[in-house]
Amino acid sequence: MKFFTYIMVYRRFLLVVLTVLVLLPLPIVLHTKETECAYILFVVAIFWLTEALPLSVTALLPSLMFPMLGIMPSKKVASAYFKDFHLLLIGVICLATSIEKWNLHKRIALKMVMIVGVNPAWLTLGFMSSTAFLSMWLSNTSTAAMVMPIAEAVAQQIINAEAEVETTQMTYFNGSTNHGLEIDESVNGHETNERKEKTKPVPGCNNDTGKISSKVELEKNSGMGTKYRTKKGHMICKLMCLCIAYSSTVGGLTTITGTSTNLIFAEYFNTRYPDCRCLNFGSWFTFSFPAALIILLLSWIWLQWLFLGFNVKEMFKCGKTKTVQQKACAEVIKQEYQKLGPIRYQEIMTLVLFILMALLWFSRDPGFVPGWSALFSEYPGFATDSTVALLIGLLFFLIPAKRLTKTTPTGEIVAFDYSPLITWKEFQSFMPWDIAILVGGGFALADGCEESGLSNWIGNKLSPLGSLPVWLIILISSLMVTSLTEVASNPATITLLLPILSPLAEAIHVNPLYILIPSTLCTSFAFLLPVANPPNAIVFSYGHLKVIDMVKAGLGVNIVGVAVVMLGICTWIVPMFDLYTYPSWAPAMSNETMP
């Protein structure tokens, strides 16, 4: 038993050592550049999938192994670890830092929820809309972490309001006490977690028999210690949690900066196909926003039906008086919004810079009209989305937020300096350096595959797939990515598969965007498990959900996501990039094969 205990304790160490040793015959026996690169690719892939080493540490392995095996010189590998992507990320994080520092994100979320109303169905749609909108500009993780406490407070208020209504109704019928209440509190001397209460008919309510016999379940959640007066209350809590998790992921699909997988794809694509110049902030938003909107609405319908039922007549009933629960819910949201006070100068400046950044991104090269990049026609392609991000990012360090004062010996208060919207220390605390290194490792890995000829070899070996219908190839790759991303991190998944899917598209003579766009979008569809992505883990930690709840709900959202992506890639995305034609900017595959 001790032997197995030691194995479990040192399993990550053993996995690292065994992986390196077991795969070592591959470069030793064949001894070609392709096999040596394949060896590194397999080692990195296994470490990423199993997380035997931290993802960022694994991402540094190409910088160590490529020079040692003679695939790329160290200076060339190092240059892959900092590219245009990293400059774009820095600018976006400056915006996210200011938004969260001055609570602008909370004001936006609460205001959007107040607009849609407090009916449970519309309330969840309001939370999903505000979460998705924030996730377009902030990281999915920080969005979920910010919105979830608000949703939790609203859900608990609904439960408390239901308890208050029930108490009021029973007091009205029975007087000051409720003698008709029967509670089975113990089984074998211990209190149970679920209780059933039988209540007498409530005046004003009727059914076919003229009487109501209702069962009220009181559930106790062991993780949070939260009591649910009814099963519906528990379902509302589950619904709120999943709405926040899934909408934060779906919202990230709509912009290049919305999630790390989009950024990784954009940088990889622009590096591999520099002559394309068809992928920018505006073009990405144009094709991804309709897809994300459809996924969001269908996911809302699916989750609503799964947990509360989807009563269309009840939802659209006009002139209906608000229930006590809805009034209490509205009051909570209103109080939370009032706590923020009137909008401040710092929030206004952050909002102005936020809007300015979005406008500059959209107008740089919109496609249907010349953008502002045409002003620099002498240097085509020099100004990118990262140029805009850095310009706005620098302004956050320059624009004053408040004056710094000090008291002189005479007692006079004087200003001696000012504090900008964000400081470098605050920026550092938000900057995801681990993602920056992870992405750099992916770029280095892709460069190594190109230098060694492994990409061409993989493409030639996959060329027989050209006999299959293109839609089937896209479906297979999308399902493969969706399955893999449930057990591996999203950035690791997309970084691992891009160097494989690009040669595949070239080998079968298909527009690379035809395969890469749906695969990239599907990389974000990690909805099944709490560990699949950080937003799932955040909402799961509140204790309302079980794994089976997330699996049932996530399976439906996964199906919806893949179906909508397939619909988009076969309809409105086609004319945007002329997907049915093999482009001139994509190289023809060579006939090189592995010796």
Automatic annotation (TrEMBL):
Entries under Pfam families matching the protein: Na_sulph_symp (PF00939)
Annotated family: Belongs to the SLC13A/DASS transporter (TC 2.A.47) family. NADC subfamily.
Q: Which organism is it from?
A: Rhinopithecus roxellana
* Spans through the membrane: 42-69, 81-99, 119-138, 239-265, 285-307, 343-362, 382-399, 470-501, 513-532, 553-574
Can the keyword Transmembrane be found in this entry's annotation?
yes
Q: Where in the cell is it found?
A: Membrane
Entry protein name: Solute carrier family 13 member 1
Quote the cellular component terms of the Gene Ontology held in the record.
plasma membrane
Q: What is its main location?
A: membrane
What gene name is listed for this protein? SLC13A1
Q: Name one molecular function that GO assigns to this entry.
A: sodium:sulfate symporter activity
Topology class, membrane: Multi-pass membrane protein
